[in-house]
Each structure stands twice: as structure tokens, then as C-alpha cells.
Amino acid sequence: MLVGDMEVVSDPALKALLGKDGWTKYYPLGPSDPDYSVLRFRARQGDYYHSLEKKSFDVD
């Protein structure tokens, strides 16, 4: 499990870079479609289980 911060990316160049041609079926206006969103997640910490023990770590 990761814990962190999520933000909506509004940079049109990045949205165009990540968009795919086949997505026009869902986003007819392409990367400029108001329904098309790109999210950026930055992890701060995480947890996982190993040998039935919970392990925690910080993400630098």
C-alpha cells in the first residue's frame, strides 16, 4: 500500500504526450477533451507484508 499525494495535471503538452490515438473513441476532442484527465501520484510512504509481518518504508 502506498500513501501520498495526488494532483490533476493541467499541462497540455504532457496530456498530449500521454494520450493515445485510439482514445478518441472515449475522448472525441483528444487531450483537450474536458473529460480527459491525467493524474500524478507522488508516494510518501508505504507498507507491505513479508512473512506475516508488516513492513513500513518511507519514499525519498
List keywords for this structure.
60 residues, mainly beta, Pnp Oxidase, Chain A, three-stranded antiparallel β-sheet, elongated
Approximate helicity band: 10-25%
Number of strands: 3
Query: How are helices and strands ordered from N to C?
Result: EHEE
Average pLDDT taken over every residue: 96
Shape: elongated
Instruction: Give me the CATH superfamily.
Output: Electron Transport, Fmn-binding Protein, Chain A
Number of contiguous helices? 1
- CATH-defined architecture: Roll
Q: What would you say this structure looks like, in words?
A:
The chain has 60 residues and is mainly beta. The protein has one domain: Electron Transport, Fmn-binding Protein, Chain A (Pnp Oxidase, Chain A, Roll), CATH 2.30.110.10. It is 12% helix and 45% strand. The chain has a 3-stranded antiparallel beta sheet. β2 (38-50) and β3 (53-58) form a beta hairpin.
Secondary structure topology:
Blueprint: E1 2-9, H1 12-18, E2 38-50, E3 53-58
Describe this structure in a few short sentences.
The protein is mostly beta strands and 60 residues long. The chain contains 1 helix and 3 strands. The longest helix has 7 residues, at 12-18.
